[in-house]
Amino acid sequence: MLDLAGDIVDLLQTITDIESVSGNEKALADAVETALRALPHLSVVRDGDALVARTDLGRAERVIIAGHLDTVPVASNLPSSRRVVDGEDRVYGRGTCDMKGGVAVQLAVAAAVTGPVRDLTWIFYDHEEVDAERNGLNRLSRSRPDLLVGDLAVLMEPTAAAIEGGCQGTLRVAVRTHGKAAHSARSWLGSNAIHGAGEVLRRLEAYTAAEVLVDGLLYHEGMNAVAITGGIAGNVVPDLCVVTVNYRFAPDKDEAAALAEVTALFQGYEVELLDIALGARPGLDLPAAQAFAAAVGGEARPKYGWTDVARFSALGIPAVNYGPAHPNKAHTDDEHCRTEDLRLCRDALLRWLTA
Amino acid sequence: MLDLAGDIVDLLQTITDIESVSGNEKALADAVETALRALPHLSVVRDGDALVARTDLGRAERVIIAGHLDTVPVASNLPSSRRVVDGEDRVYGRGTCDMKGGVAVQLAVAAAVTGPVRDLTWIFYDHEEVDAERNGLNRLSRSRPDLLVGDLAVLMEPTAAAIEGGCQGTLRVAVRTHGKAAHSARSWLGSNAIHGAGEVLRRLEAYTAAEVLVDGLLYHEGMNAVAITGGIAGNVVPDLCVVTVNYRFAPDKDEAAALAEVTALFQGYEVELLDIALGARPGLDLPAAQAFAAAVGGEARPKYGWTDVARFSALGIPAVNYGPAHPNKAHTDDEHCRTEDLRLCRDALLRWLTA
Questions:
Q1: Minimum distance, in Å, between the CA of residue B10 and any CA atom of chain A
Q2: Which tens digits make up the pLDDT trace of A151-166?
Q3: Distance (Å, whole) CA A306 – CA A222
Q4: Is the complex ipTM higher than 0.90?
């Protein structure tokens, strides 16, 4: 049984040591469910390995506070360990940063705040680190849309205890060059598709990514080849080369605008859209977000990586990222969470929900 | 059981339909072995999937007539089909050109000529279309050098029934560009190795291949990217891109001269030699080659593709290419062999070996 009222660092270590790589969330979901059902002020719903726990006090506002239970694969970094490094007290281990630190804060505050000034919907979900089709929040939005209603969502992804607004969008395209195959000993009979891709790479190298101001936050875009493949055999002039390009775009762009940027850059080439996920505007000008920002303090920053705030945004719910641990430590072998961040985030939420 | 005395077009179709992509030659080698062992005038040795069948009549001269049994991968072009196209009767299918047409001629003549005026060494070998380490002729030259003795070698690679002298050399290098990996959402923290390969491709596109006169024959060189690979994951700026370049060079160049051409072209980049095979000078001024040329008639041309004539050349045996089918059809999806070429080659060999 998880001790939600005990030391929050112990709580983080306990849930970190229940390994929960995507697809293996059941044991942790069971533990969280048991702990939540022991809290009489919350009504709990389970959907697969996702849990939704709510107050229903008839408050004027309802806020959603969400986090995912799963992690990327373990890299010999479990069980967790607590060490002082560079003068900081830290918990090391897979998931401590992304994002069991946030989950520990959620659990501690869920137990502590029995009569919040805003109604609360706590969400703990599965399959965030894998493809969108399996994402637990995505599944909940289809199976139980009634549970995903609120005035503001806080996603407790690692932000080093600062508010990060919105997120960038991301798309991938395949840019193809065509040629004519021939034996490389008689290459003048063919046309080399790989040589033809040189111009595609040249345009990428010459491309200057935009910096875009959205709702007061500056987003730095990026246009990168993330893969290139070509070649049939060691003695054949290749007739096809495929450059996979990833465009990270500011959240002011919709699908058409993002695609237009890419097709303009690769004009004259065959461009196929492989996947796209729109960003989320920071939304910090919205009243619910401003109240949260005032309670937390500090200055908001833009979020670069794509996160599930975009799913809330698509549901019409303004959403921000806010959680313990430095985001650069996500997915790294030396993943860790500064223990001070746990207390900072817990106390900020307590202020916001009880003041 | 192959019918070596029957119609030579039927024989080509039969051996074409025994698929023998490099590494899968066993079934065809078995069929050829059975057919050869039924011929009492030949003594047969098998080495892996290579076969050597010899007469031993004490003639003044011994000639080697060689062909490989393997093909490049099938491209939906099996089983074979016989069609009249552009007024020509042709057999279509993987291997018909490179070089089962030549193998069919070898088999038909091996059966027909029981008392040749020159002693004969017929060679059928494996793994010609892959790296030199696995080449069956290369293996035979190490394991059974006693079988690779002769005054002249005829390699029955496709030449459209004309003598093609010598062959070009070939080398492959890996040209590498390096960068710094980063999450593609924060790509300004990294450096994209694929973008860096654009200049390598630009130099290849701008390169003008030389035409070189050797022993009276003009060789047209070629410099081609035959593969390109790069990329770690769909959301990572890649730190490495590798371009594999194939240089086909005239037979006047030794290893140092060929390498110098490549390292000069890619100055400033990391260049690693992957493999090299020197060419063979045409050697048509040698007496044994002149006797063969007189029997066949027509005018000699340069051979562009690297062929195993260079292995014979390195063993001190003058060697020429001579076989049915147009060499431009090798490795193509519409690979085919003109049936008239089968008869032309068969009859020329019969004249040479029985006159």
A1: 28
A2: 999 999 999 999 998 8
A3: 13
A4: no
